Amino acid sequence: MSTPLTDGTKCIFGLRFNGEPLYLLFIESDADLPHRSLVRVDWKTKKIETLVGLVDKPTNEGFTGVYTCSLPDRCWGDNDKMYFHDCQKLYKEIMRLDVNTKSISCITSDTEKGVYAVFDVFDGLLLGRYANPAQPMKIFIAELPSSNDGFKDTDFCEIATTTVSISDNIKWEVLSLTREDSGGYPYEALFVSPRVVESLPPLIVSSHGGPHMSSVADFTVWTACFIGLGYSVVFVNYNGSTGYGQDFMKSLLGNVGTLDVNDVQ
């Protein structure tokens, strides 16, 4: 006998079983927007339960919602806690979900912001990667933190890194932007520039596609090359970008070509 996991109007991704008692956890998405929920099925009773729902308007430093469409093949620290990475504003963070309490938290360091990814979780260890606009990707391994703690900078043991050091030549910052006549919400941009300049450098403005996608504070070769040539680059997460809540994405509906374009300008 088959058991439908949705009402037929949603998409599901990243199905993962955990241990005992046996549960199936998956990502669920509506058809119109890439803002997702985390759902659990009790494999014995077939009861379906939403663990993490949509976030309409996150607080300033709070959880902004689930946007990923995949989970690591091995994502369980134990039967109760699942680890994955997801977009939270301009960053990608390591997230921990307690499936019993339904609490989800960001456990990456506040002092090492950038883009994290979880590759594997096994035997109390997490294998992942980290990068930022001035730091090419490095691979690390770390012990899973205790239930109430997050990672500290000293928890990461690098096992592979690039041999090129360019951090002395690149600086980056996150800009908070507001337009009084926008009709939308405050938004953000990532500004990457040469660390030392003699005059105001020429500017390259980059806007992501989608429109419901986002730019993140990752390292890219083309950005580093332009910085080396003396340019600055700004990446704009205009109204409609992912990583900022449901209302932020919905603000673009009916305003494509005006709200997003004016935000970038």
UniProtKB/TrEMBL annotation:
Coiled coil spans: none
EC number: 3.4.19.1
Catalytic function, reaction form: Cleavage of an N-acetyl or N-formyl amino acid from the N-terminus of a polypeptide
Entry annotated with the keyword Hydrolase: yes
Superkingdom, natural source: Eukaryota
Chain ranges of the Acylamino-acid-releasing enzyme N-terminal domain: 36-170
Molecular function per GO: serine-type endopeptidase activity
Annotated Pfam families: APEH_N, Peptidase_S9
Residues annotated as domain Peptidase S9 prolyl oligopeptidase catalytic: 222-264
Family: Belongs to the peptidase S9C family.
Summary of subunit composition and partner proteins: Homotetramer.
Entry protein name: acylaminoacyl-peptidase
Species assigned in the record: Amphimedon queenslandica (Sponge)
